[in-house]
Here is the input.
Amino acid sequence: MRWMSILLGVSVAGIIGFFAVRELLIDPMYFFELFLGGLTRGSIYALIALGYTMVYGIIQLINFAHGEIYMIGAMTALIVASVLGLWGWNTVVIAILAIVFAIVYSCAYGFTVEKIAYKPLRNAPRLSALISAIGMSLFLQNYVMLAQTPEYLPFKSLIPDFKFWEPFAHIITSVELTIIITTVIVMILLGLLIKFTRIGKAMRATAQDKIMSSLLGINVNNVISATFVVGSATAAIGGVLIACHVGQINFFIGFLAGLKAFIAAVLGGIGSIPGAVLGSLVLGISESYFTGYFFSEYEDVFAFTILVIILIFRPSGILGRHDAQKV
Amino acid sequence: MVFKNQIKQSLIIAFWFMVLTFPIMVIKVNTIKHTIDFRWINLLGVGIVTFFASMVWNYFLRRNEEQKKKDIADDIPLIHRLLQNDRFRRPFLGLIAAFFIAYPFVFPMYHTSIMISALVYVMLGLGLNIVVGLAGLLDLGYVAFYAVGAYAYALLNLHFGLSFWMVLPMSALLGTLFGVLLGYPVLRLRGDYLAIVTLGFGEIIRIVLENWDTFSNGPRGIGDIPPPTFFGHHFGQHDTMIYIYFIVIALVLMTIFFVNRLENSKIGRAWIALRDDEVACQAMGIDKFKTKLTAFALGATWAAMGGVVFAAKTSYINPMSFTIWESITILCVVVIGGMGSAIGVIAGALVLILLPEYLRAVAEYRMLVFGALQVIVMVFKPDGLIKSVRKVYTFNVQEKEIHEQTHT
Here is the structure.
């Protein structure tokens, strides 16, 4: 059995490798472009997936409303940017203020959603919390739709085309470059936060054992709130960046993006932060190649197929801890 | 003093929400005309509504806490007590039966049609209840099997002219087959991994139906699906609706009967044991994989039958009827109704499907209200509206003997 799966894995990798090398030799430029496109896509997934994986790591809940937090981030940025734009402010100031407002508001929403819909359900059956999350997601979508508009809104990119980047702009636009660089910076900051700060240590402790960490003087409720706030902040950054990239948003963008990011988080092993990043990049890059070389209408099928295949061979994701069940 | 504190707290919450909703509720930017509307009145509305809502919310939260402290002993829901009491049982069931028999003749066709969809959801809910409520497997792709049933009827009828009554048992078998096929690779996964993979399968089936034009006619869907006939007799439009209504009633009764029997059978108890403690259950000699697979396949069977009825009723199907929201709605039926409890699932389906239909009067706000209700029900009744009651076996004979022994 073990030999068979190794053999299967090697042969699949061989076939994929063969085609990859062939395509690379035929048209290296296209191959490289697809890679960068995938990297951009994966970066966005990673920014959203972080929120999922952190929340899951701490309270074992699929936070269905996370996609909506991301949407609200993009929406707030759009509103702030257009208001300030009409008042004739400087573009750089607008960009900074829009991003700051998006992050602050997303954090506030994440915090509030947790207090309303998840905190009372801390000791309830897990499925009840899941339904509550779904209800929250539905509520937030419709709230934005009713208060704003069901139409797509054009989103003027907050990121200017950099002058110094012009010679390379045909390979990768400055927006895409910004997305990749921002993601890297956010990842590093988050890594430092988790690894070295007090709250980061408290988060890791809470994820491991809630009761024990509360015995050691950690306020578990505060840690959970902090987790939601941090997750929402990265989602807001993702929201603003993708809105700049795509150029339009509406109230429903959170759903599919959230779903994809969740798949990425599961792919990498849910609960693990490096896993979420790796899963997102794997998903983004392979999706990009798939749509580039095969059929684009089956893009979502492909995402799910990858997920199913990886989970069958590695049931707890690529980097997931395989915890033995205790009796 | 306590009251004063509460008002203060609610004021703070109201203020928080006013700040929170400010950009989205108050500012509306018209990107085409380049004008901004400031809707200050909304801000006032949000403030007032959240102030009172937080008062009520906190009051009920506190009351819930106090009740939990008072009686830890499990309270049996009213409806279960009614059903257990022989004096109420018969008149109660009789009343319900009379209501459902009279329903299509008393109310106009529109209401019958809505009731049929609600009853189809009762079937789907009871089917999913086997998977989620009894066996504890979170399945987010249940709609895939529903789609299998609906497309089986549509396609078999289109190509081979098979009738409703021939397809119904065939689709049940097909559903089981699909359940086994999909369940086989994924049932090794635990908890949420299973949820996301089943979700994936649900979406895969929908997207394939949407894109494989030659097989399923793509997003255009399949039309002119004939309604069921009664031994070759065709009814008029109105009578067909009533006829389908009674077919669904019969199917629902059959489902209730089966599920009830299953629940207290050997396999049903194995499911519940597996849900409660997998390791202990395996230690008792229950084949984990086989038991899970049966639950998955049986759940799929009912979904496929529900799909056939759905196709026959609407006479037109397309992939848009089988999105992930459909799976989520069915899951909500099960969880809000009360997991593992058949009566709860029936109540859940009737509430969840009928409510949005009758809320159409306030059509714009219905999904908003629906989402809020889901949160509220779960926060205040995390076990669902009517929670399940395990069958209690009493050792009457022994007690009697002991009783006699002690007295002699």
